[in-house]
Structures are given as structure tokens and as C-alpha cells.
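Continuing from yesterday's entry. The apo prediction looked reasonable, so today I'm repeating it with manganese (II) ion included to see how the binding region is handled. Same sequence as before; SMILES copied from the compound registry.
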Amino acid sequence: MSENTKVPAKYKRVHDVAPSAQYAAFMKTGWTPSPLHGITAGPATSWCVARRSALSAAYPGIRLVLPAGNFKTRSNDADYRFRPHTAFAYYTGVQGVEATADAILVMEPNGSGHQPLLYIHPRSTRETDAFYRDARYGELWVGRRFTLDEAQARYEIETRELNSLSELFATKKETLTLRDEDAFVDENVSVHPREEEFMAFISAARLVKDEYEIAEMQRACDTTARGFADVVRALPAAVATRRGERVVEAAFFGRARIEGNDLGYETISAAGAHACVLHWIRNDGEVRPGELILVDAGVEMESYYTADVTRTLPINGKFTPAQRSLYMLVYEAQNAGIAALKPGADWGDFHRACQSVLAHGLADMGVMNMSAEESLSPEGGLHRRWTLHSAGHMLGMDVHDCGQARKDQYIEGKLEVGHVLTVEPGLYIQPDDELFAPEYRGIGIRIEDDLVITEDGCRNLSGALPRHPDEIEAWMASLMR
Ligand SMILES: [Mn+2]
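Holo prediction written out below.
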């Protein structure tokens, strides 16, 4: 195999027949000089300087190793499409298809701060055997990568061959890393008692989004809105197809791949009672007129920022009275949640605002043998039979962003300007729930939007998509004409 790869030996590749000396020599000659790409700094490059300064200041004198991660095997010798670790992308500015497996950012202690060093597999030129022999990295197989100079111009970080990382590791220093992302790093960096704290730090570092990040999240939401329009246009075909939920899933995926990098997470395409299964990603059901379809989907842009939006739509374009009454309760709950978003509010405030509206609505329907207040008390909680999940989470490059942040920074913390989060209350009446009249059974509704906290409250980044039933019906009619 090639000199610059770490493909596990167990994946002996059928096409990798050792070349004859004559063939190997022949493959290195007769090529015109490779054109230089006119590489300029990437869109996130300048924003990463301040991010790395904050990281450096928090860990003086400690070598910090942030791996992009290795390929993940799907089966046998087939890998999943590569997507770098979020922390690596956040501190380097690496975007979309530029990302290559095994790359590593090292923050090397230097004077009072750190020098960033980027270690990559550089392109495999025609002088190497790898270009035609290495199916995982060779550019004849997978396309051209950056040279060291090109990567340096793109990210404005000194860039070195990954092969030389062992030289750096030979000089022993106190080192912190993200465990279980890169086999070489795990082998060569000893376990440090502060690893968990380090992970919490880099997770919490992304809580407040900068201007560039908020603009990217707006783009993700706008692209996602176009994906939902594609979903509505696909509904007649979904009804006409046996596994109609897949028609919906595929319509959205097309938009994600055409305009973005990928999906931010697996699409939930849940028609009828499937909407009552919270993570319904099998998406193999029928789509029937007269029922609702719950679609939870988000486009991840080249910058890796993702949207996370849910709409619950009447498949034939018109809500029934029972569907509309349940929908309006969720709609009012979401309005109350959004109204609770402002700097200084407790993280739990918007959740409690949503739950209060839902519990009162459920109590009014007579399905609980206690009042809304009793149900909302810690000893009660009966309404949760139908509300099931919390009302939102932080959003960013990861759909559940900042998940390793400490409690006092996140779930027991306060909202700040620049936080981006979802507000997504739901009501789920299981198909076999005898406490509801038959016309309500098997209805699942969630409405989810992405909001950024501003000085005077919040801004709905996904507000381009209608939420009120009247607006949804008019919007669907305009798309299904
Ligand atoms: Mn969500």
C-alpha cells in the first residue's frame, strides 16, 4: 500500500495487485505538470483565529491534539462518507469536501501561547505509487487533495505531512486530546485526567455563535425551507408510491446534497401513526390522504452548520377538525416557548412555558384525572404521557450541539445573546390510546424552529416556513397546484 496511509491490513483490496517494476516506473512518467490550484483563504479561516486564541488561553503549556477522525467502516472495505469531528472543523475552518480523514490539528505550546500545526495526508502526486494503487486515498481513485502549501493558504495554519507527526510526539509533553476519534492518537497520547474537562471546554466554546456562524445557520435554515417545499411538491408522488415516506425522505435529501454538504441527521419522515414513534427513521410507510405527515429534517451546509426543523403537514393539503385542534395546542405551546426566549432567561424557562400550555390543553380535554397545575408539579407529570420529550436543544455544527458542556453552562445555565437553539414542543397520541376519542388516536404533531437569542429576545431563523395551519394550507396549495 502507499507510503502515507494507515489502511488496516485486514482490508486486503482485490485491485491492489503489486505492480511490476516496469509498470511502476511507467506510471510515473509521461504526465504533464499538475496544475496549481488558485487556493485562497477559506470562508471560516479568519474566524478561527479568535477561536484558537480562546483555546490556547485556557490550556497554557499543554499540547492540544484535535483529530478530524478516521474513516468509519460501513462494511468490509466500504467506508461511510467522511465527515470530520466538529471540534476539528471549528478550530481549523475545514469545509465540506475539502475534509480528509486522519488530519490532526495540534496546538503546540510556544512561548506564552500555542502554535497551530495542521497535519494532513497531502495529495498523492504522479511521483507516488499511491495515486493509482490506493483506493482509499489515491487521487486516481478519490480525487485530488490539497498539497501542504495549498492547505496552508486555505487555513492559514502551518501544514505538515501526517507522516511526520510521530516526530512531534517523540518530544514528550503534557498532552490533551479527544479520545476514541483517531487510532494513531489513542496509541501515542497517554490518557490524561483532564480529558473529560477538555471535552466539556471545547463543547461549551461553541455555545455562543459568532456572526459568521449565525449567517451560516441562516443559510442552513433557508436551504432547509426549500427542502420542505420539495417535500410538499413530492406528496402526490408519495401517495402514489408504496413506500411513500421514502419519496418524502428522498425529496429532502436531494436538496441537502445539491445545495449543502449532507443532512445534519437522518430525516424523520413519519406519516400517520408513525409520527408517534419519536425517532421514526425507517421511513418505509405509506402516505395516505387525510392523515398528517411529520417531517423532521435539516440541511448541513459545506460549513457543517445544520438546521433542525419539523413541520407536520396534512397530506392532502387540508387539516381535519381533530388534527387542527391538536395542532393549535402545539402551535400555542411553541408560541409560548418562543416568547420565553431572551438573554438572562433560565435554560428551562422555554421548556416550562411549552409544557404549561400543553398540560392546560390536555387537562381541558379531560384526559387526565388531575388538574394542569397538579400535573405540572414534580409529583404529577401525567401530561408527559403525550408530550414525551423536552422542548429543545442547542444547535450548531452538531444537531445536538455543545452536548458535552457542563450542566452549569447549559441545562442549568442562562440564555445568552448568540445562543442558537430549537423550540420543538410536540403531542403524540398513540394509536392504541383509549383515553382519547378515536378521531385523535394515531396523531403525532411536532413543530420545530431554530432561533437565535438577540439583545431584545430572539429571531426565528426558520421563520420562512409557515407554522399556522391557515398559512400551511395556503403554502401547500401554492406548491401543489
Ligand atoms: Mn431537534
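Comparison notes:
- The longest helix spans residues 211-239.
- The mean pLDDT is 95.
Will overlay with the apo model tomorrow.
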